[in-house]
Amino acid sequence: MTNHTQLANLGWQPFFQQQLCLSEWETTVPARVTERHRSCLQLATGQETFQIPIIPSLPDVTVGDWLLLDSDQRVQRRLDRKTLFKRRAAGPEAREQLIAANVDVALVVCALQGDFNLNRIERYLSLCHEAGAEPVVVLSKADQFQQSEDFRSQVQGLDPLLSVQCLDTREPEQVQALLPWCGAGTTVVMLGSSGAGKSTLTNTLMNAQCQRTGSVRAGDARGRHTTTRRSLLEMPGGALVLDTPGMRELQLTDCAQGVASTFEDIEALAAQCRFPDCQHQQEPGCAVTGAVAAGTLDARRLANYQKLVREQAHNTATLAQRRAQDRQLTRKYRDVQQVRNRQRYGD
Ligand SMILES: Nc1nc2c(ncn2[C@@H]2O[C@H](COP(=O)(O)OP(=O)(O)OP(=O)(O)O)[C@@H](O)[C@H]2O)c(=O)[nH]1
Ligand SMILES: [Zn+2]
Q1: What fold does the segment set 4-78 form as a domain?
Q2: What are the boundaries of each domain within the chain?
Q3: d(CA 264, CA 270)
Q4: Which of 58, 231, 252, 339 has CA 20 to 30 A from 36's CA?
Q5: Which bound ligand lies closest to the C-alpha atom of 270?
Q6: CB environment 262-290: b (16+ within 10 A), e (fewer)
Q7: Which residue's CA is minimally distant from atom 25 of ligand 1?
């Protein structure tokens, strides 16, 4: 029998509960993926923490996912995800890489010094909107800047409903401003460039004591202890911080919806262009370039929108090609297998 409070402490919510039928509730145990290693997953049920090997029959799983296990700790199924962060994997092969599932809030950390860049913030916002997580922009190193309010209003200008906070991430009192997004059972993730202040913010939020939810230190082949690469940290207030390594080479993949909701203003203007396939370059009757000329739309914002749309179209195409190649390869294997079987067993 599963204890509700223990599950809630791991981020269990009605959204997941609703997916279980009565018999599953009696015969299975929900477990959250707290870490993913090359050959095993680390799971936590609230009562215990253990590792299971990654085997081919396992569904595609990432950190933050919920699995249903039978009494022998075998995976029955993966529950539907509330949200999902993914990116194009690094390298020439345009594969999709799952980063984190079931994240409720994304703290987008950007330092005011050196790191401040509206284009990059829009990129992160698109990623959050695509994933389905609520973004909160944290402008860090506010202590080093006199005009932090200027920057805050520039970010607010991207979206009047966006939450934007300027902070010194080292100061517990200032960090309290983020507590409304860190309620019990909420899963929080930090996004942002290297050096922006993500670790500092995590530490301050955790009161400097990292309590790793269900963590065990796994020994590697040489018997040394390896530090965990991804894990779920429990905040004193009951929120969970999913501590993922920096999202390097951030690319948008299959992210058209995220771009569209980040640039709702431009999409609304585009609907008024004379030509339905308007590229908003030099077409007559273009409402978008018209707004730039009238000074109601920032040319920077339009340029970034066009760049993200192009980038997302490019990535989706490469992924589609990749999937086609995979299908072709599968067909080829099947043909080879059939020939072999024919040779072995006759026709
Ligand atoms: N003055 C000031 N320094 C800060 C603030 N936030 C972070 N720092 C400093 O900036 C440096 C980088 O901060 P980190 O928290 O390590 O940055 P990070 O985003 O975790 O970087 P990666 O781990 O590389 O992704 C550290 O020396 C911090 O002490 C802030 O709000 N004010
Ligand atoms: Zn147009």
Answers
A1: SH3 type barrels. (2.30.30)
A2: 4-78, 84-243, 256-338
A3: 10
A4: 252
A5: 2
A6: bbebbeebbeebeeeebebeeeeebbbbe
A7: 194
CA atoms within 13 A on the CB side of 211: 12
**Domain topology for 84-243:** Rossmann fold (3.40.50)
Residue 121 in contact with residue 155, Cβ under 8 Å? yes
CATH architecture of 256-338: Orthogonal Bundle (1.10)
CB 229, CB 244: distance < 8 Å: no
Q: Is the CB of 258 under 6 A from ligand 1?
A: no
Ligand 1 touching residue 314 (CB < 6 A): no
pLDDT digits (tens, 9 = 90+) for 11-30: 999 999 999 999 999 999 99
Instruction: Tell me which of 169, 190, 193 to substitute to probe ligand 1's pocket, judged by most ligand atoms within 8 Å of the beta carbon.
Output: 169
- Binding-site residues, in ranges, read 140-143, 192-200, 273, 278, 280, 286
Per-residue DSSP letters for 4-37? HHHHHTTT--HHHHTT--HHHHHH-EEEEEEEE-
ipTM for the whole complex: 0.96
What global pTM score does this model have?
A: 0.77
| Cα–Cα distance measured from residue 63 to residue 229, given in angstroms and rounded to the nearest whole number | 11
DSSP states of 128-155 as a string? HHHHTPEEEEEEE-GGG-S-HHHHHHHH
